């Protein structure tokens, strides 16, 4: 059968052999066969009707939460109607996608490697399959160490991934030390201007670029790269093409993936282009490299601070263990919101840094004699409280 994809049909019908359009990824796919699931068996049918939950084979690019439709023409009509309703001038910026699944950023990561070279190919295939069905799992190759890095939502999540690799894909894989995914940001604006020159195949490529990086809370739909203000800036940038701006944006995004402090992603910043000059025949790759280098220089000169993930925590425990649990939480920089009571159990809610809750399930079982349970959910990133805590984090991440 190949990879199978569960779908729900909201309108029209989906037939075997039909060509469909993935709105989320702007790609065409072809359905091989359609099935109706009955427990662990699949009954082949000619088509799926409205309201049915079915299974299709043959989709290569589609992943969980993608929106599918019959053709690109249908999407164009939907874009036109949606952009008119939203008051948007550019229809291309509007994607008529279903709400899908709200997936927060991964907050834990660790390295993964196969137990032997014979399992390496199987590990790569298995991780690709797992990513398709689980959008909260991220896999990337670290450019410095060349290690494969898994990012997930928690300790249990990554342990389950490891177990599935062994049981479902028959791949023996080892996970490295679990780490919290911190972020970096800047606290004050920083300006940098460089002349970037390279010689490739007897052709001189040169870019002069000036950017200003300043802190700004990220907003959905707002670009992180903008043209600067002022008459002289506007006069200089009027010859900047959309293609060149896209190259600069790609370079900026690449530079923000690794911050200057401990190489975590830089967030909550905005980059203004104040000057741009390009030599004749300069390639797009050089433009991207120049933008990335310039932004890295600006970040190096700026005041950078660490951000740590904060989670909402709810602990349910027997009343007689309440004080022991609260005392333990207070040692973990816990900020209490409220204590409620239901059916003789105390419900303690509040927020705490994720780094302080690693291995908390074991600690809770110990202080509550196995009668306590808890749940937590990522809330936001927050600046590390003081320089002492920041130094501890840096030492833990670097290992020295």
Briefly summarize what is shown.
It contains nine helices and 23 strands.
Q: Low-confidence parts, pLDDT < 50 over ≥5 residues?
A: none
Total helices: the number is 9
Strand percent estimate:
35-45%
Derived structural class: alpha+beta
User: What's the mean pLDDT score?
Assistant: 88
The biggest sheet amounts to:
5 strands, antiparallel
- Strand count: 23
Q: Based on Cα principal axes, name the global outline.
A: globular
Helix content: 25-40%
Quote the distance from N terminus to C terminus.
51 Å
Radius of gyration, CA atoms, in whole angstroms: 25 Å
Characterize the structure shown.
With 400 residues, this protein is an alpha+beta fold. It is 28% helix and 35% strand. The protein contains nine helices and 23 strands. It has helices at 72-86, 120-133, 155-167, 231-237, 242-256, 284-301, 322-330, 360-367, 387-398, and strands at 4-8, 14-15, 19-22, 27-30, 33-38, 41-45, 47-48, 53-57, 68-69, 108-114, 138-141, 148-152, 173-175, 179-180, 183-186, 190-200, 203-215, 225-227, 269-278, 304-318, 335-342, 345-353, 373-383. Strands 10, 11, 12, 13 and 14 form a five-stranded antiparallel sheet that branches. Strands 15, 20, 21, 22 and 23 form a five-stranded antiparallel sheet that branches. Strand 3 (19-22) and strand 4 (27-30) form a beta hairpin.
């Amino acid at each position: 059968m190949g990879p199978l994809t569960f779908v729900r049909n909201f309108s029209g019908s989906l037939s075997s052999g039909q060509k469909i359009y993935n709105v989320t990824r702007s790609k065409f796919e072809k359905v091989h066969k359609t099935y109706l699931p009955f427990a662990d068996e699949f009954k082949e049918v000619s088509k799926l009707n409205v309201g049915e939950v079915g299974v299709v084979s043959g989709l290569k690019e589609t992943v969980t939460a993608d929106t599918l439709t019959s053709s690109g023409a249908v999407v164009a009509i939907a874009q036109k109607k949606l952009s008119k309703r939203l008051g948007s001038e550019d229809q291309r910026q509007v994607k008529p996608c279903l709400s899908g699944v709200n997936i927060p950023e991964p907050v834990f990561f660790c390295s993964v490697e196969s137990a032997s070279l014979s399992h390496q190919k199987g590990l790569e295939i298995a991780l690709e399959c797992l990513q398709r069905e689980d959008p909260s799992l991220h896999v990337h190759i670290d450019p410095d160490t060349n290690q494969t890095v898994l990012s997930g939502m928690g300790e249990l999540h990554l342990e389950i991934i490891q177990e599935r690799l062994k049981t479902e894909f028959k791949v023996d894989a080892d996970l490295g030390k679990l780490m919290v995914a911190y972020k970096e940001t800047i606290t004050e604006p920083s300006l940098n201007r460089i002349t970037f020159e390279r010689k490739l195949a007897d052709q001189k490529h040169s870019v002069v670029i000036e950017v200003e990086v300043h802190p700004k809370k990220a907003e959905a739909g707002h670009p992180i790269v903008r043209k600067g203000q002022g008459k002289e800036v506007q006069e200089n940038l009027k010859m900047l093409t959309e293609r060149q701006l896209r190259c600069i944006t790609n370079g900026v995004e690449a530079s923000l993936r690794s911050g200057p402090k401990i190489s975590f992603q830089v967030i909550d910043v905005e980059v203004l282009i104040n000057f741009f000059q390009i030599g004749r025949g300069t390639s797009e790759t050089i433009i991207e490299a120049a933008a990335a280098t310039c932004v890295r220089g600006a970040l190096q000169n700026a005041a950078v601070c660490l951000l740590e993930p904060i989670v909402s925590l709810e602990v349910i425990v027997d009343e007689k263990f309440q004080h022991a649990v609260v005392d333990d939480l207070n040692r973990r920089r816990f900020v209490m919101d409220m204590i409620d009571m239901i059916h003789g159990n105390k419900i303690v809610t509040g927020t705490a840094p994720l780094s302080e809750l690693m291995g908390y399930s074991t600690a809770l079982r110990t202080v509550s004699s196995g009668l306590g349970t808890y749940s937590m959910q990522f809330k936001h990133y927050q600046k590390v409280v003081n320089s002492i805590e920041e130094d501890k984090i840096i030492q833990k991440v670097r290992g020295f």
